[in-house]
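Appendix B. One record, verbatim.
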Amino acid sequence: MKKILLLGIALCLLPLGSLLAQAVNHKAHSVFLYNFVRYAEWPANAPDNEVIRFGVLGKSGVFDELDEVLKVKTVNGKKCLVERITDPSKVGFYHIIFVADGESGKLADLLAAIGSRPTLVVTERDNLVRKGAAISFMVSDDNKLQFQLNDQVLTSRNIQLAASLRSMAQPMR
């Protein structure tokens, strides 16, 4: 009877463990996104350089985590704002856009709408740097969150990343 009770408790706690893991993951993504902005430099003529605008395409806990972080943080003395993007084809200017995993299929539409604007597009799904994203997150074999960079995209969008940040990037596969 004790074994059945323990098994029942363990099965009930499994979803809770999964939710906690997701929360940690969302927090890690939001910290990376904030630091990408801290260590990036946009051209002086970038629109709306008085407020740093973050966009999140898709439903993701990253939005909530970023919203909490950005309430109390600034970047180089500038206020930060996060908004949810629902239609990638009608996107306005953002300094950085995070594309949630479930919205990866809309990357081409998003990139077409952005055009040549200096927007740092970061994807949750790995290897989308090969499809036009500037940065793609990836999870290493030992479950550490890492990222890949696409130097050509960064150059074409006139966005410069600090050498210290660039040195942390994993090679494109």
